């Protein structure tokens, strides 16, 4: 039996996950709007035999300007290039790298989504993937005729329907449908074309999709969401789950829960790859790795730092940064359900004597969930998670680009390869093959096929 290999994604948006990445001396300041930057990152990823490049996304400027002046200093989070367009270009300069992006079920029609991703899948010869998100930001909602996001239940109901319709459309053409016979004049076998005739509460879609399946049958379905409703969509339809587990305990609990949910939907455990986000600062020595982290932390503008506390506390800009939050302070953050979190953070800051500056550095730099060290240090942790079956691999959320991607390919990947945990060559050409997933089975193949009269 071949040894199970770790899966790796390189998760990105713009210039990296650290909020001060754009100010780093090695980062191209306008890179998030330049195709050459993305090509460079993708080439680093492919050189490292990474399974897939993954784009987080939102249809709008999601950051609020609290405190005033923070928006203008947030850099890479404000503007970028729409990722399906971007991935089409990346597909032309790579041959094996998986190409996955987020796209919202709140602001897209299923037919548009199915068609766009099917096109990307064809162009890349079977390397595309769709990360289903229901979208949480009121700032995005305002770009689509809404004042705020739809309520939670409706958002997820819509997401579930949309995902059903998209995956249904991707099965429009059964295996062997395209006979392409110039001699007889038959382009496709009508009996192998299927109309979906989907009718739900939010969407009505007839089909068929006017794009044929790629070499991997259909794009890979990815899901990132933590609530029971989100997990159920993942367990029913997804092939990769992107999670936000910060500890091995969280990851073990999450994975066990997903296995149960998979069984509920009659899917085998091997049908899913669970990949938590994993922030790495990799150095040739521990000191170098720590310096890389400190350097970015030092570049956080205080106004930007305070914006990371604003959802919880409101605007703290009037308070001294090098003192703890005052004892009589009342949090003004208005998000439902997080006041307990704000209270805990205030209590902890008093207990540890943490200053406001220390608090924002912790939040903005995600100080509690970073992995900082040599490749061997970081590989030790990854190996532990992987062997204890806390996950199937990791989505590396590197702090700055392209340098962080180069560190992964030059330092971390060789260490994982040396331990026999990661591939030295891509196994196949499609993302499905490289993730070791079973071939896609078109829902109509083998079933009694329905004969459709003609294309309308
Ligand atoms: C690891 C991870 C990555 C995510 N990436 C995105 C993203 O790129 N764009 C987006 O709009 N939402 C993203 N989300 C948010 C989720 O889609 C979802 O809206 C949010 O987690 C709240 O839903 P939940 O309660 O089901 O977790 C992500 C969530 C997680 C956990």
Automatic annotation (TrEMBL):
Superkingdom as given in the UniProt entry: Bacteria
Chain spans, region Disordered: 437-456
GO MF annotation list: monooxygenase activity; oxidoreductase activity, acting on paired donors, with incorporation or reduction of molecular oxygen
Luciferase-like domain sequence ranges: 33-301
CDD domains: Nitrilotriacetate_monoxgenase
SUPFAM superfamilies registered for this protein in UniProt: Bacterial luciferase-like
Alphabetized InterPro entries for the sequence: Diverse_substr_monoxygenases (IPR051260), Luciferase-like_dom (IPR011251), Luciferase-like_sf (IPR036661), NTA_MOA (IPR016215)
UniProt-annotated binding residues for FMN: 57, 102, 156, 227
Gene3D superfamilies xref list: Luciferase-like domain
UniProt keyword terms in alphabetical order: Flavoprotein, FMN, Monooxygenase, Oxidoreductase
Keyword Signal: no
Basic and acidic residues bias spans: 446-456
Statement: the UniProt record of this protein carries the keyword Oxidoreductase: yes
Family affiliation: Belongs to the NtaA/SnaA/DszA monooxygenase family.
Protein name in the entry: FMN-dependent oxidoreductase, nitrilotriacetate monooxygenase family
Organism field: Salipiger marinus
């Amino acid at each position: 039996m071949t040894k199970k290999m770790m899966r790796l994604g390189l998760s990105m948006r713009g210039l990296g996950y650290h909020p001060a990445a754009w100010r780093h001396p090695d980062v191209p300041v306008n890179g998030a709007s330049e195709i050459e930057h993305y090509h460079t990152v993708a080439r680093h990823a492919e050189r490292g035999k990474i399974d897939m490049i993954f784009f987080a996304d939102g249809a709008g400027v999601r950051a609020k300007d609290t405190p005033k002046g923070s928006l203008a200093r947030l850099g890479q989070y404000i503007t970028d290039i729409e990722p399906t367009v971007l991935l089409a270009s990346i597909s032309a300069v790579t041959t094996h790298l998986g190409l996955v992006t987020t796209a919202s079920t709140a602001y897209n029609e299923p037919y548009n989504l199915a068609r766009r991703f099917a096109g990307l899948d064809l162009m890349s010869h079977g390397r595309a993937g769709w990360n289903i998100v229901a979208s949480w930001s009121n700032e995005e909602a305002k770009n689509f005729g809404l004042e705020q996001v739809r309520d939670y239940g409706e958002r997820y109901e819509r997401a579930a329907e949309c995902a059903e319709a998209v995956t249904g459309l991707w099965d429009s053409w059964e295996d062997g449908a395209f006979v392409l016979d110039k001699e007889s004049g038959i382009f496709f076998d009508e009996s192998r074309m299927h109309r979906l005739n989907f009718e739900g509460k939010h969407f009505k879609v007839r089909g068929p999709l006017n794009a044929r399946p790629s070499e991997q049958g259909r794009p890979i379905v990815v899901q990132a969401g933590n609530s029971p409703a989100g997990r159920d969509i993942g367990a029913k339809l997804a092939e990769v789950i992107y999670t936000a587990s910060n500890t091995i305990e969280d990851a073990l609990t999450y994975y066990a829960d997903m296995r149960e949910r998979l069984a509920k939907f009659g899917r085998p455990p091997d049908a899913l790859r669970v990949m938590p986000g994993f922030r790495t600062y990799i150095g040739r020595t521990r000191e170098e790795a720590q310096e890389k982290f400190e350097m970015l932390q030092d570049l956080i503008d205080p106004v930007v730092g305070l914006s990371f506390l604003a959802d919880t506390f409101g605007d703290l800009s009037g308070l001294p940064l090098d003192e703890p939050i005052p004892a009589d302070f009342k949090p003004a953050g208005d998000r439902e359900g997080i006041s307990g979190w704000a209270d805990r953070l205030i209590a902890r800051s008093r207990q540890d004597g943490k200053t406001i500056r220390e608090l924002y550095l912790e939040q903005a730099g995600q100080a509690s969930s970073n992995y900082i060290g040599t490749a061997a240090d970081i590989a030790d942790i990854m190996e532990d998670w992987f062997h204890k079956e806390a996950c199937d691999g990791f989505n590396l959320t590197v702090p700055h680009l392209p340098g962080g991607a180069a560190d992964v390919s030059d330092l971390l990947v060789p260490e994982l390869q040396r331990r026999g945990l990661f591939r030295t060559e891509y196994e196949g050409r499609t993302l499905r093959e490289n993730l070791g997933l079973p071939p896609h089975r078109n829902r109509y193949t083998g079933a009694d096929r329905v004969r459709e009269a003609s294309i309308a």
